[in-house]
């Protein structure tokens, strides 16, 4: 496969002058590896094929030609280093609002342009459009998708302390000034309406609602962000958190002529891999010469029983190490958004953010961003609505939607395969819950369900979790 | 005012040839009057000014030039009289679904093109777009507004009886075959999600939900309608139920160069009248020569404590008779839609349907289609959201939105006037509830609140209501 790429991308290396080629020796993206292998930039560490570097330009912004960011320009509201001092001084003079951890995740998301053209937390005008139409109308009449309200809740006391100030300093959970919010607007946070229109239910037990909306203040604070420095988590995973700008650069460097994004918040099993590899095969058949997979695990808030990000990243790493996915044509990076579990509404956000990161193909599966109904024995969303709504969503017409083919465990072939309804009894569906149950009980899933290295990561995680869970019980006994 | 019109419309009468002028002696719309006066077509009954007739063409469809119907063509799915027999025979051979009264109201709405380009009850594709985006994307990429799901619910038994039939006969509450639904699709009726996304709440006590959704079946039946004959109610008000086609014809006949629609479900008081007359004045100032008011009370389902349609029509009639509104420049007709009380979602429907009827201006007030929260002591919707959402709504860009100025009773001038915040203590706000309380208690509102003739209609209605309400109590005593 790599040979094919080397040959086929050659004709595209025509627009770069000598000066630019020389600069490619200093690639801008050089994450330090964690775990046993780093899947991120295999070419950077495998310097045997210099031809692959010719399109890379470090230090300058290359606009990926595959797909325009929403609104035409990728938002970047991180204050340049030269202005950091003066802006920080100014921020210190302003009334402040305290951010929760979830708010910092959104500051991160907005600051790098995932939500382009959104430049800050939504004002009411944007909030209402998002809530009612899942989209924003731009001044020139074009429409961009915007399905989730990206808002900052404040309480009465904070509202009072802001008074009539036009700008507000945003303070992180540790008390450090993170950003300035400009030309602010304060408006009512009607939680019930927000929840009903975003989730299509107001039943108690929605993870994002219980954690962040129910306890939040009754006001929303909108305005334009100026983020004083890039948001970092110092959890050993920051190098995986490539911004849309960095991803676009990397796609250009690799001379991708198609980028297909795979959103996930679960470990990768061989069914996922089959699907991603099959997508690549289909894209090659369609005439694309160098389709690149963006394996893009969600890195923000997830519900308590989901596998944590660090474990998932290690598992993904193993999947590439074990050769289930091809590192040559795969980029693994973290999508910094929190998870809403809002099904058809959220899948639009997942897709839209990847458009901003330069992906022009998006894989969508059964029940994306779905979960069980919190109070009834059924799926919260019709499992087919996600892909249907995504294919109709305003502002996403330019994105190629690739609906999932259902993969299941073929007990005859002893591997994950596309489900064949003509011999349905041969297939075993292994849900995320089932997979976690196997791992938790120390049982092995059927051979060929997941690569052994990846499975081991999960088993170790659940062993450790059970040991930790057992601790207090021992202590209290 | 009428003199002005006569003079100013003259220059527009230039495109009609002699043949067409001769045909204007037989106007197509000649409703029979009910009540003391009929406001509908004063010019037809006041044949003193033949110059006013010159633009009228009977028997042919005149496409009003003011505003295109959504989708470009006004939907009309009423079977031509010549095919009625054969279609009825065919309908008798089909499996059937029984319609509730509310469904018949929707058949009426769809059949005349109020919901253009919708040609029948929504299939899932349309339902999902309506629910998530309040709009439909047409095949040519344009977007039309469609904020309320217009759907037909059926139960398990009906679904079973339909089996694999492609077409279904629709049977009215009295057992008569009303329509055929073609190329049907049956899909799940997720009531919770429909309610949450339409109303922004799932609180018990929403009138439309309690009456029609809660008891409805778990399936939705979509398809293209063929309505066997025009829907009539035989309640003495059918002549007020002008179709969009008839209204467009009438606007053209009157040579309107602007049509401004006023949706209402309450009696007209002098604050409303002030607003409508002021709107006309503003339109004249803007250079329009002949703005016509479409006073357009909603005629379908309303909640129990709203004033019934027949009483409202009599009250509206009095308002015109008493000269509060000018019959020369006003058309009173009934909008056959049922009421959802779904605030910002529903106001889009109210506006969109009037676009289809040829109105290019729409007056929107405080809290349109709103009501009190069914379980909390507050308005269900932010009173400003209706006009904000309407001004942002996809597909309604072509409509001129005229936001309400708040009118209140000026206790100094002793009349309804635009509220002047600089002397707010002089103003008295009389809500619909307050007005009904006055009428119910036989008290008079302040002088100048409503014309005496109109007020008398209300007092009589409540006297009669109280008499009826007292009856069972007397009987049981």
Structure in words:
The structure is a homodimer of 477-residue chains. The first copy, chain A, is an alpha/beta fold and 477 residues long. The first copy, chain A, is built from 16 helices and 15 strands. Chain A has helices at 2-9, 18-23, 42-45, 81-92, 101-111, 124-133, 156-162, 191-199, 207-213, 244-253, 270-285, 309-321, 343-356, 385-392, 432-440, 452-476; strands at 96-98, 135-137, 143-145, 153-154, 168-171, 177-188, 219-227, 258-264, 291-297, 330-332, 361-364, 400-403, 407-410, 415-418, 427-428. In chain A, β13 (407-410) and β14 form a beta hairpin. In chain A, α12 runs antiparallel to α16 (452-476) and α13 crosses α14. The radius of gyration of chain A is 23 Å and the shape is globular. The termini of chain A are far apart. The A-B interface holds A 124-125, 128-129, 132-135, 137, 141, 143, 188, 190, 192-193, 196-197, 199-203, 344-345, 381-382, 385, 388-389, 392-394, 397 and B 124-125, 128-129, 132-135, 137, 141, 143, 188, 190, 192-193, 196-197, 199-203, 344-345, 381-382, 385, 388-389, 392-394, 397.
């Amino acid at each position: 496969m790599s040979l094919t790429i080397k040959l086929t991308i050659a004709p595209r290396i025509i627009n770069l002058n000598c000066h630019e080629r020389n600069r490619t020796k200093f690639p801008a993206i050089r994450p330090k590896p964690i775990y046993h292998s780093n899947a991120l930039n295999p070419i950077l560490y495998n310097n045997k094929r210099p031809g692959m570097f010719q399109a890379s330009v470090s230090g300058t912004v290359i606009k990926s030609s595959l797909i325009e960011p929403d609104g035409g320009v990728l938002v970047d509201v991180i204050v340049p280093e030269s202005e950091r001092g003066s802006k920080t001084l100014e921020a210190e003079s302003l009334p402040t609002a305290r951010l929760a951890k979830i708010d910092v995740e959104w500051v991160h998301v907005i600051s790098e342009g995932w939500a382009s053209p959104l430049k800050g937390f939504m004002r009411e005008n944007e909030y209402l459009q998002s809530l009612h139409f899942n989209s924003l109308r731009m001044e020139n009449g074009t429409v961009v998708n915007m399905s989730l309200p990206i808002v900052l809740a404040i309480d009465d006391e904070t509202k009072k302390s802001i008074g009539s100030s036009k700008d507000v300093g945003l303070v992180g959970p540790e008390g450090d000034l993170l950003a300035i919010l400009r030309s602010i607007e304060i408006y009512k946070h009607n939680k019930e309406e927000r929840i009903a229109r975003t989730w299509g239910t107001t039943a108690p037990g929605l993870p994002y609602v219980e954690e962040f909306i129910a306890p939040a203040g009754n006001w929303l604070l909108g305005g334009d962000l100026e983020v004083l420095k890039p948001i970092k988590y110092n959890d050993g995973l920051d190098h995986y958190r490539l911004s849309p700008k960095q991803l676009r650069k990397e796609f250009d460097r690799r001379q991708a002529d198609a980028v297909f994004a795979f959103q996930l918040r679960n470990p990768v099993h061989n069914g996922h891999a089959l699907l991603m590899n099959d997508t690549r095969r289909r894209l090659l058949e369609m005439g694309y010469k160098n389709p690149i997979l963006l394996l893009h695990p969600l890195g923000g808030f997830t519900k308590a029983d989901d596998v944590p990000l660090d474990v998932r990243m290690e598992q993904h790493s193993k999947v590439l190490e074990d050769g289930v996915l091809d590192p040559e044509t795969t980029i693994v990076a973290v999508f910094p958004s929190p998870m809403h579990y809002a099904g058809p509404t959220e899948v639009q956000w997942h897709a839209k953010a990847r458009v901003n990161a330069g992906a022009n193909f998006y894989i969508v599966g059964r029940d994306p961003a779905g979960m069980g109904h919190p109070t009834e024995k059924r799926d919260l969303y019709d499992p087919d609505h996600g892909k249907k709504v995504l294919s109709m969503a305003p502002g996403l017409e330019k994105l190629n939607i690739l609906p999932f083919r259902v993969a299941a465990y073929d007990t005859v072939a002893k591997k994950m395969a596309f489900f064949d309804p003509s011999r349905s009894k041969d297939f075993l569906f292994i849900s995320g819950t089932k997979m976690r149950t196997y791992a938790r009980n120390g049982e092995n899933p059927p051979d060929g369900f997941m690569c052994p290295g990846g499975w081991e990561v999960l088993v170790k995680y659940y062993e450790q979790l059970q040991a930790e869970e057992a601790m207090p019980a021992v202590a209290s006994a």
